[in-house]
Amino acid sequence: MPSSLSVTHPIPSTNRAQAAFKALSTHFRAALEAACGTPCDVFGSRVGAALADAAALVDVLPADVLLGSPERYTRHVLASDPTGRFAAAALIWRPGQMTPVHGHHTWCAYRVVKGVLTEEHFRWDTAELRAISTGTRHRSAGAASFVGAGFEGIHRLANQSSEIAVSLHVYGVHADALATRVNHCVDTKLPRQAA
Fold it and tell me: In 3-state terms, what secondary structure has residue 186?
């Protein structure tokens, strides 16, 4: 005889946010998979369209996730391709948090969905072997960017506002490689001269 605590059949979830997240992330993943099959000249715009459609994912993330972390900006995987063609994540930025100055080991796209981020652009100086700032842009909700791998899109993203910001990012890597195979950190200072 089963105990009063045993469950003999699944209990349907009453968490509507979980169901909505699953449906939205499935749609997002399908849009990214479709983009992966397109020619290079339209790939970036297809990824951008997928990011625009995925902005609703932020509305169903748990409230504690949207608080971020006091130590650093946080990444939360939203969708990924099991073969490693892409991984998508929501980044939560508290005021004052920023990335290091970096290029990319892989293609990258992002869209601001809440708040304002400041993007500082850099160019790679091959003679001085360092990145040199070329200016900044404020990126409000709806702003998006796509760059290929390499040093053509060196930048630093920062939340210089007084409110939490949220952005969606897609990278051309397996989800397991988000922390190690996306950012290619670069120097902004002159190399030390040999003594």
Answer: coil
